[in-house]
Amino acid sequence: MTISSPSPRNAVILLSGGLDSSTVLAIAKAQGYDCYCLSLDYHQRHHAELVAADHVATALGARAHKTVQLDLSLFGGSALTDTRIAVPEQETTGIPVTYVPARNTIMLSLALAWAEVLQARDIFIGVNALDYSGYPDCRAEYVKAFQHMANLATKAAVEGQPITIHAPLIDMTKAEIIQAGHALGVDYGLTVSCYQADAQGAACGMCDSCRFRKIGFQQAGVADPTRYRAVPQGA
Amino acid sequence: MTISSPSPRNAVILLSGGLDSSTVLAIAKAQGYDCYCLSLDYHQRHHAELVAADHVATALGARAHKTVQLDLSLFGGSALTDTRIAVPEQETTGIPVTYVPARNTIMLSLALAWAEVLQARDIFIGVNALDYSGYPDCRAEYVKAFQHMANLATKAAVEGQPITIHAPLIDMTKAEIIQAGHALGVDYGLTVSCYQADAQGAACGMCDSCRFRKIGFQQAGVADPTRYRAVPQGA
C-alpha cells in the first residue's frame, strides 16, 4: 500500500446503532467528514442494534457502512455475550456485568485498520464518561492512551499522518447529547440502545441503557421516540 | 464477572504458528505459566500457519488453543489479505506490502479480552524489532504504549490487577531466537513462517519471512527442518 495522497476528509465512525454513536456520526458529518461507519457483530444479545446502525448510516448519508463479524462469546465473561449471565434490571454499583472485556479496544483497533487503508486520519467513538455505566474504556485518559499507542502502531502514523481519536461526547450528559443530535436532525426513532432489545428493536425499558436514555429525553425536553415492548416497571 | 481470585499463572500467548511465536510459547511455559494460546484466522494467504499453531500448542502442552475468526480482507490493504497485491520475492525498502494494517493491535486487543476473562495478568507476543520486516507494531515503544493503554482499558486493571505485555524476543536476532527455542525443545518442523505457504505448509523459500528464517538457522548452527515446495532461486 502506497500512501501518497492522504484523505483528510475521510473518517471512520464507530457506529453501534445506539443513541450516542448515531449522534457522533451526525457531529462528524456536520464537521465536513466523509463518514465510513464501522459496526461490530460480536454476537451481542441486542442484535437489533446492528440493523439500526444500517438504517442510521443511510439516513445520515454515510459513504459506507461495514459490519465486522467477530464472535466475542468465544471468550464470554459478559452479560452481553454470555446468555448464562442475566442483564440487571435495577441499578448496580461498580463496573456492571454488561461490561464486555476489551470491547472498545477491539473496536478502536478495527477502526484503526480501516482508517489506515482509507488513508483517514480521524476516528470517532461515542464514549461518554459522565452517565455511562462506569466502564473503564469510556474515560478520556483511556482514549488518549489509545491514540498514543495508535500513533506508534501504524505505517501511516510512522510516515507522518498521525491519527486522532475523537470522542466528542466524552463530557456531555445524555440530555446534552440528545439536544445536540436533535439539532443536527438525528432521528432517534431509528436507534436502539436497549441491552435486551427484541428482534424488532423494541426496548425493555429497565436495563441501565434504557434508564439513561429515558431520563436523557426527559431532561433534554425532547419527545422520546423509543419503542418499548411493554410498559416498564415504575414508568 | 466477579474478579475474586486472580490467576497469576495464567497467560495468554499470541500464537501464529510461526517460528517466533512458537518460541515465545516455549519461553512462557518454561517460566511456569499455564498457557492459553490465541490464533487469528484473518483470511491470511498462509492459512497453513493456523494448522501449524494447533500442532505447536499441543506439542508444547498449552492448556487451551482458540482461533478467532476475523476477516481482515474486509479492509484489504495488504499483500497478506488482498490477493491482488503480490508477495515480494526480493528484498524491498521501507515498510513492505506484507504489513497488515493494525494487525498486532487487533491481536493484542483480543488477547486482552481473553486475559480479562481468564483473570490472567500476562500476555506474550513474539514481536521482534531487529530482523523483522520493519513493521511499526514490532517495536518496544509500541509494546509499551499498548501496555499503558491496556491498563486503563480493563475492569481487571482498574480493580488492581495490571496487565504486562511480554515481548521476550524484542531484541533477539533470528539466530538467537532459534537457539533459545532449540534449547527448550521446540520442534521447528511443526512451524510455518512462509507468507505464501501451500496448504500442506511447504514454504516458498523466497519471501521475506522465508529468507529471515533460512539465514537464522544457518547463523544459529541448527539444522533447518523447513519443508520447501521447490528449490528456491539463489539457494
Report on the architecture of this protein.
With 235 residues, chain A is an alpha/beta fold. Chain A has one domain: HUPs (Rossmann fold), CATH 3.40.50. Helices cover 34% and strands 11% of the residues of chain A. Chain A has helices at 19-30, 48-59, 103-118, 140-153, 155-158, 174-183, 208-220; strands at 10-14, 34-41, 64-69, 122-124, 164-166. A five-stranded parallel β-sheet of chain A has the order 3-2-1-4-5, sandwiched between helices. In chain A, helix 1 (19-30) packs across helix 6 (174-183) and helix 6 (174-183) packs across helix 7. Chain A starts with 9 loop residues before the first strand and ends in a 15-residue tail after the last helix. At the A-B interface, strand 3, helix 3, helix 4 and helix 5 of A face strand 3, helix 3, helix 4 and helix 5 of B.
The Rg value of chain A, from CA coordinates, equals 17 Å
Structural class of chain A: alpha/beta
Major beta sheet, strand line-up of chain A: 3-2-1-4-5
CATH architecture group name of chain A: 3-Layer(aba) Sandwich
Q: How many structural domains in the coordinates of chain A? A: 1
What is the name of the CATH class of chain A?
A: Alpha Beta
**What is the CATH third-level topology name of chain A?**
Rossmann fold
Q: Output the number of helix runs of chain A.
A: 7
- Sum up the overall morphology of chain A in one term: globular
Topology:
Two copies of one chain form a homodimer.
Chain A: E1 10-14, H1 19-30, E2 34-41, H2 48-59, E3 64-69, H3 103-118, E4 122-124, H4 140-153, H5 155-158, E5 164-166, H6 174-183, H7 208-220
Parallel strand pairs in A: 1-2, 1-4, 2-3, 4-5
